[in-house]
Amino acid sequence: MKLKLIPQAVALTLCGSLALGCANQDNVDAKKPSGVSLTVTDTTIPSTFMSVATEPPPATVIAAVAPAPPAPVDKKSSASNEPDLPKQTTFYFKFDKADISPQDIAHVQAHANYLLTHADLKIAINGHTDFYGPETYNEQLSKKRAESVAKIFIAAGVPQSRLTLHALADHQPQECKNDTRHNRRVELHYQESTLASKD
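The structure corresponding to this sequence follows.
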């Protein structure tokens, strides 16, 4: 029984303190610190909490509300919404094929998005082949490979004037000329527009 009366006594003490401390609204406004807004709320304690007194007078409660602190600034995202330079710049092809793989299409599209946000850049698309086949055939195949990548840039909205295609056939093999798998490729090389226009 004593445990039930303790919360009721605390509630009565709080109500009395609030009623006495908040009786003079003019006094509160004079002491209000700058940068803090005050909200006045009229609250009445329900009679279910009261067993000693019948109904207390309505108390006016003043709650101090401090302004919300500014949200933390993410320096990386606030700098710009520009995409990062994609890391993959070499795309490999199957033997005697010029079709880019579906998983590489997304990487090429990321390069196109990057190029669209950097108007000062152009890109060289260099097509390569392995050493199998006649030179003229390999030149045509390397050109088709470069064109298949260029089509993705153009479809994304990159103007053709910002693309330079090179059909290099087997003239610039990677580390080992006999490693045919790694020589069947397209490489992307970024150039500043001012440098690219001098070529």
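The first helix runs from residue 2 to 21.
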